[in-house]
Amino acid sequence: MAREKIEPAGRLREILRRIDGRGYGAYRNCEGAYAFDGFVLLIDHAQADPFAAPSRVRVRVEAAVAGFPARCLSTKTREVAFRDFLARGFAAAIDAKGPGRRGSGKSGQIAVARPGQEVMERSSVVVTPDRSVEVRFTVGLPARGRTVLGREAEAIFFDEVPSLVRGSLLYPTTDALALDRHLEVSEDADHLRAALRDRGLVAFVADGAILPRASGVDDRPLHGAVPFTSPPSLRVTVDLPNRGTVAGMGVPAGITLIVGGGFHGKSTLLRAIERGVYTHILGDGREFVATDPAAVKIRAEDGRRVEKVDISPFIAGLPDGRDTRAFSTDNASGSTSQAANIMEALETGAGVLLIDEDTAATNMMIRDRRMQELVTDDLEPITPFIDRARSLYRDLGVSTVLVIGGSGDYFDIADTVVCMQAYIPEDATARAKAIAERHASDRFTSAGDGFGTFRRRVPDAGSIDASRGRREGKVAADGVRGIRFGVHDIDLSAVPQVVEPAQTTAIAHAILLARGYMDGRRTLHEVVARVGDDISTGGLDALTPHPVGGLAAFRPFELAAAINRLRTFRAGQKGK
Ligand code: ADP
Ligand code: MG
């Protein structure tokens, strides 16, 4: 970017007074950088009309003025948490100021990407190399009809924005204790997540954690919930840098079943584990729930498109003779979609699979003795998960955590069985093993010995097109679980580990960046890893041609999931 010329704030006031009452396009004259008392205001892009996407604005507060201590930036974890804290503070300051309607359309509205319960890297607040703090937000430049309301705009930039800056971006007015707690909780959570592998665990759920959420559309903790209590035999302790020692349930690597009666909290526990790949804010209830960062939720997703995925470990010998080592369909069934989801996750390096019977295809999970006799193996293309889970762990080191209240056949292959009783887990491993001895399932294992190798795909850049009419690269998030990609829609409703619209927006842009790495040789795994490297070095700004707020960090799994769900996506296979 060219070095911006910074003009005195008075210049902006002049412009706004001059264009007052003119056509809306005159707002273009405001684009530029202005020195205010204690900060620089950058109007990067003025919207073309009052109903268009609001104007992009930044505020930059110099390090000496913002005054935040060095401990906010001493590690990557702290930097991310610090920025997240400021983004929350800025959003709260906007809320406190009340709705800023000042005319037609989005006139007068100041908005910043709204953080949820997770602490993550966000582009809405960045710390520049000279350690100044930059906040990126949007402003609906005020209009009556299509006429510039210059005085209203003046009030926004000369009263409201400075008061937001004073209220949320200066250390002297910050709740220092809350800031330190935020940094410490993040540091503890990252420490906990990093401690899992050495201890042979894939997840940890602290005693006292609150797992259920207020509702399906409200991710805050359920009021009056029963706190988590670990079974003594699975209890482990971890020393954290700030909180000290925490005790909780360690979920060991291998195959873990979560069993129990309906409504006893099985899915709630698995959902908390699935979110444990992220850090949670203080008061969330899941601050000390941590999961292997490579854990991927798997579910059935009938109707999805599948492109040349090797699903042969799970499905082979289809009656129509189709090759399941390079399986494509525009309308996958429950079992084929689940098989594809597993294989795609493995392809991208998943280390733990999380599966809930509530959202799994039954025929993909179980096949009991009686059915094996009636429908013999030569007539059944599906090798159920029960016959692959062990070799998945033994050969590929991939663990499984599985909610299964409906089939005791799984006792045979489980390493650990947790039984939920009125939201409290009990270690039922020994009992389940004894029952398995007493009542043999008499199943015969239909899978051969090992998991075997599977084929990886090489994406075709030409199949990824985000143009819309004459416009190149038109992408946007549609809520959390949808992406508009040019003229195509990508459905992420079966990808629950995307949790915020800002992640979805970032993924939408990341697909375009990924396309540039598709050279006909790199595998999809390599392509998404390149994008991850770019973000590690250049931050989320690597995703867009100019700096924007409204992006949040995501994992390679979710980027690959979005690419896999683009219906035009085409791939070859490595070595084919
Ligand atoms: P399951 O999967 O075993 O059928 P769920 O996890 O869906 O059960 O939980 C059933 C209900 O119990 C949900 O409404 C959930 O919010 C509630 N619930 C789960 N855990 C707790 C808890 N620890 N305290 C209070 N209510 C809970
Ligand atoms: Mg359930």
Q: What portion of residues belong to β-strands?
A: 15-25%
By helix and strand content, what is the structural category? alpha+beta
- What would the principal axes of the Cα set say about the shape? globular
On the 0 to 100 scale, the average pLDDT is 95
Low-confidence stretches: none
Number of strands: 30
Query: What small molecules does the structure contain?
Result: adenosine-5'-diphosphate, magnesium ion
Distance between the termini: 42 Å
Overall radius of gyration? 26 Å
How would you sum up the major sheet? 7 strands, mixed
Number of helices: 14
Helical content class? 25-40%
Structural description of this entry:
This protein is an alpha+beta fold. The chain is built from 14 helices and 30 strands. Strands 1, 2, 3, 4, 5, 7 and 8 form a seven-stranded mixed sheet that branches. A six-stranded mixed sheet has the order 19-22-23-16-24-25, sandwiched between helices. β9 and β10 form a beta hairpin. α13 (524-538) crosses α14 (556-565). The protein is globular and about 85 Å long. 48% of the residues are buried. Bound molecules: adenosine-5'-diphosphate and magnesium ion (MG).
Short descriptors:
576 residues, binds adenosine-5'-diphosphate, alpha+beta, globular, single chain, six-stranded mixed beta sheet, binds magnesium ion
Summarize the structure in short.
Helix content is 30%, strand content 22%.
What's the topology here?
Layout: E1 6-8, H1 9-19, E2 32-35, E3 40-45, E4 55-61, H2 63-66, H3 76-97, E5 110-111, E6 118-119, E7 125-127, E8 133-139, E9 143-144, E10 147-148, H4 150-168, H5 176-198, E11 201-206, E12 213-215, E13 218-221, E14 235-240, E15 244-252, E16 255-260, H6 266-275, E17 279-280, E18 289-291, E19 295-298, E20 306-309, E21 327-329, H7 334-347, E22 352-356, H8 362-365, H9 369-374, H10 389-396, E23 399-403, E24 416-421, E25 424-427, H11 429-438, E26 457-459, E27 475-477, E28 482-485, E29 488-491, H12 501-516, H13 524-538, H14 556-565, E30 571-573
Parallel strand pairs: 1-2, 16-23, 16-24, 19-22, 22-23
Antiparallel strand pairs: 2-3, 3-4, 4-8, 5-8, 6-17, 7-8, 9-10, 11-15, 11-18, 12-13, 14-15, 20-21, 24-25, 26-30, 27-28, 28-29
Helix pairs in contact: 1-4, 3-4, 3-5, 12-13, 12-14, 13-14
The structure holds adenosine-5'-diphosphate (ADP) and magnesium ion.
